């Protein structure tokens, strides 16, 4: 099982169809700024909360490293159609996109 890397400019398509956006950074990083609509599920809690990640989810972190680890782990458990946001929130911002601050998605 594998996952697919997603460029930041491709994320809007997945947002429009209602894909779950899962930010795997720690809560303090998440509240400093995250992709609109993303919910926080820290990588450090993923094993205990893996059932909260549906098939087709887009995994996000700061640069794409932790989210690729999360995607690989979940794909190994049999999750289907997972995506990893390459460049993470930094890549999102480099494209001129805004982040949401605080603890709301």
UniProtKB/TrEMBL annotation:
InterPro entries per the UniProt record, alphabetical: GlpE_sulfurtransferase, Rhodanese-like_dom, Rhodanese-like_dom_sf, Thiosulphate_STrfase_CS
Superkingdom of the source species: Bacteria
TM segment ranges: none
SUPFAM superfamilies assigned: Rhodanese/Cell cycle control phosphatase (SSF52821)
Pfam families per UniProt: Rhodanese
SMART domains xref list: RHOD
Domain Rhodanese: 15-101
Entry protein name: Rhodanese domain-containing protein
Organism: Deinococcus radiotolerans
């Amino acid at each position: 099982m594998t996952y697919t890397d997603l460029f930041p400019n491709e994320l809007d398509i997945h947002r429009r169809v209602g894909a779950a956006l899962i930010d795997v950074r720690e809560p303090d990083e998440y509240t400093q700024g995250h992709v609109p609509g993303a919910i926080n599920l820290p990588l450090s809690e993923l094993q205990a909360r893996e059932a909260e990640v549906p098939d087709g989810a887009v995994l996000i972190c700061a640069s794409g490293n932790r989210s690729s680890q999360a995607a690989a782990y979940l794909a190994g458990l049999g999750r289907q159609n997972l995506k990893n946001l390459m460049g993470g929130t930094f890549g999102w911002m480099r494209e001129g996109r805004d982040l949401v601050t605080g603890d709301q998605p």
